[in-house]
Structures are given as C-alpha cells and as structure tokens.
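Hi Q.,

Before the meeting this afternoon, I wanted you to have the iron/sulfur cluster prediction in hand. No need to reply - just skim if you have a minute. The sequence and ligand are here:
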Amino acid sequence: MSLNKGKDAKPHIGIFGRRNYGKSSLINTLANQDIAIVSDIPGTTTDPVKKSMEMANLGAVILVDTAGIDDDSPLGKERIKKSLLQISQIDLAILVIVNNVFDRIEEELIDLFAKQEIPYLIVQNKTDIFPINLEKSNALSARLQVPLIHFSCSKPENVKVLFEELNKLIPSSSLQFKSLLGDLIQKDELVLLVTPIDSEAPVGRMILPQVQLIRDVLDNHAVVVCVRETELEAFLTKVRPKPVLVITDSQAFELVDKIVPPEIPLSSFSIVLARQKGEFEHYLKGTPKLAELHDGDRILMLESCTHHVSCDDIGQVKIPKWLNQFSGKELIYEMASGLEGISRPIADYALVIQCGGCVITQKQIKNRLRPAIEAGVAVTNYGLAIAFMHGIFHRATAPFRSQKI
Ligand code: SF4
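Predicted structure with the ligand bound:
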C-alpha cells in the first residue's frame, strides 16, 4: 500500500511543565516568532495556545503551549484540566523541567503520556541560569529511557538537536497516511465519486474528504470522475468500461445504492476515511450495536472539530433522527466536540459514534476512542452508522472487509 504524507491533519506537539519554566519562550524559539506571551510572572499562559509551523524534516506541525501544571489555585486547577485534556489530542510531548526538578508532578504527567502512548522527551530549560548537572540529567534520562536535552532560550544552540530528537520520536501514524484506495485500484481504472451539491455543500468548493479522494486516485495513476447523484444513472448507462469503485456521500447512500449495479463495489467517503485513520475493526464490530439499543441508552457523538456546520447537522440532527426511527427507542444523545471533555464516565454510554475526523490524525482519533474501547463500549463512526441504518452496511464495507462479520 502506498503512503502519502498528510498535510491537512498536522501532528500536534504539546509542551508541558510547571509555571515559569520557559515553556512559552521555548515555543517561541522553536517557531522562531512570538506566538505565546512570555513574562516572568508565573501562570502567564492560561489557555492552551496553538501555532502551526514548518519544522525541519517533519514538515507542518502544530505546537501546543499549555498552562503550568503546578498551580494549586481554583482557577489554576481549571487550567491544569485544560492542559491535561490536550494530552489526548497530541502526537508527541515535550516535558520542560528546570534544574533537574523531577518529582510527583512530572511523574504523574509521564504516567498520563504512557497511558495514551504519547512519546515524549525532556527539555532541561534555563541552563543559562541553572548550571547543568550532567550526572543528574544522565541518571534521569537513563531511568526514564527518554532523551533529555539541555536548552536555553537565550542561547538556543541545541535547537537543531531538539528538532532531530523530535523527528526520531514522532510516530509514523502521525506523519503518514496509508493511501485511501491504493490496495483496491490499479493504474488507469475508473473511480466514480458521487457528490451531492445541496444546501449543505459549501459554496464554490469541494469539501475536504472529496478533495482527499480525488488526490488519492490521481496519486495511484487511476482516473476519477465526479457526478452529482442526479446525473449518476445517465452516466453509468453511457460510460465504458464501468467504474471499479463508486464512492458516495453517506447521505445519498440509499439512492446511490439503488442506482449502482450490485457488481460494482460501492462505499462512502466517511467509510473510506474511517478505514484510513479510524478504529476500523472496532467500528465493524461496534456498528451492529445500533440494532440492540434500549430505551434510555446514552449515545455519545464525538466530533473532532467545532466549526463545520454540515457535520454539526449530521451529528446533532440527522443521525439522532435516523437512529430514533431505526431503533424505535427513546435514546439520550450527548455531543462532545473538538477538545471538549466528556461529561460522564464513558461506561455510561451504550454507543460512541465518531465523526470522520478529517482534520485530525489517526493517533488523535485512537486516543479519543481509547477509553470507550477499553471500557468495552461499542464504537462506530458516522458513515458506518448511516450505512447500517439504511441497510447497506454490508455492501458499503464489503470492499474493505478482510473477513465476514
Ligand atoms: S473533523 Fe469531524 S466534525 Fe470536523 S469536519 Fe471533519 S468529519 Fe466533520
């Protein structure tokens, strides 16, 4: 399977540590510009600050500056909560320490990194003020089995070493995407995309999953054609040879399923994306839970960003409406968008439905779903849920299933 470098979902690098340890100065030094406000007053960074930048060898990344994790005030505790929430959204962490101070606060932080399988390195900062104690630094690095880099933002000579270490540590799943269709299509074959242009479609442009599919087919030296569902039947009657695969917007699945002959494989944009970077095997197992729901069951809708009106409508309106009709049960829906925490223990939910996650990395989706999977809560995603409720789950997943479920 060929690999494409993901440019839309950039790896997130979180910077953590106590107040006044120079985290904001570090992020400014790495980005080579003033992104985060720097001052000598502890607690200057209140909410996480994000900055997109190009990093040598890694390409585009997002640096996330967080509030200090040692603020005991009531407001500080809220800020710490927000900082720790970032851990589920990052791909790699930098733990900033000063003068070899490493006790309960740092230990708890690295436990959280370990729990979410977040690789990290340690930056021993402010070495211009606190003399380097090599013996202590080496002992810490050896005990934790992580790189420790001595650093000073006033003399950032080690910035190259830091970039090199980050480059070594970043998980490949954060940098590279498997080709969406590379194992299913051959050179010169035709892939047909069905893209409804309705009131929810943005004016004058295609949405990201459509653009990603077009690019992927072209990367595989195959041919891609886009039609609206209204022109689909006429197109299929005329075109020779037939498409080897049809991918449709999930919302038009029912209609498209009737038009596309059964011998032509058919799936949806969100199922293709779910396979690329969701928890696809868990989705396949979890989706049939839609048919086993009871009155009063709680459904958690997870959206990975907060700004897409179209997806809001799918998650907040359409899927609940379809699921109520499909199950005939009184269900309770709760929505968590972007970085929002979940308001109750994950085991309280009967099912978690994740969006396509087009703007985040595979690792971020995995981290978001991990608590549900570990608690044995069924998980699915928008595309698979819609396909299931419309009776086309098996057809829509057949091109990607290694075994019968
Ligand atoms: S990240 Fe999720 S909610 Fe946001 S646009 Fe993509 S699919 Fe929709």
